[in-house]
Amino acid sequence: MRDLFDLLFGPYQNYTLTEKILEAVAVVLGIVSVLYSKRNSVLLYPTGLISSLIYIYLLYHWQLYGDLTINSYYVYMSIYGWVLWTGQYKKNNDCLKITKISPKDYLNCSLIFIISIIFASTIYIFFDKFGHWWSYPDIIMTGLLFVGTWLLAKRKLENWLFLIAGDVIAIPLFFIKGYALTGILNIFLTIIAIYGYKAWKKTLLNNAPVQ
Question: How many CB atoms lie within 10 A of CB 113?
Fold first, then answer.
């Protein structure tokens, strides 16, 4: 048990106190954000925004540029989703409804995935880190989470599936890199995302018109 603890948390001996506190705060806010997301609450955006801003700082020092790109995108999507959910949706209650992705959404998802893969790869090449093993899963994870976050803002049921796939990749990546708290966060995010998918699907079925 002691060996497992040392394996997971040993790398934190090399962290500064500031980094430890920042990661802990980002993890807590990330958990709060995904819980609000499961409840279909707009509060997911301010909590997620602060968490993402903290992670941008940390991920730059951790040299995980794909995930840094994701969190930069999260900042934009948090602002976009926040405005969308509190502004436009107040004028049109239909926009508050959970829906499934359309054929047009599939096309948009494909474009977002491809563009994000190219963008994340470019960042790794720019920092001359593309040869590191972690760059490849990090880049794929970037594409999946970009799509999932965009679908979340659109209140599409399938957002959870992309977020689950991205988190599954993130879990071993962060543990192997020595960032156990963030790895644990992604385990929690995966579990909540599974429940979130079930909850949104139930809501969608309950609101479906009678045939």
Answer: 18
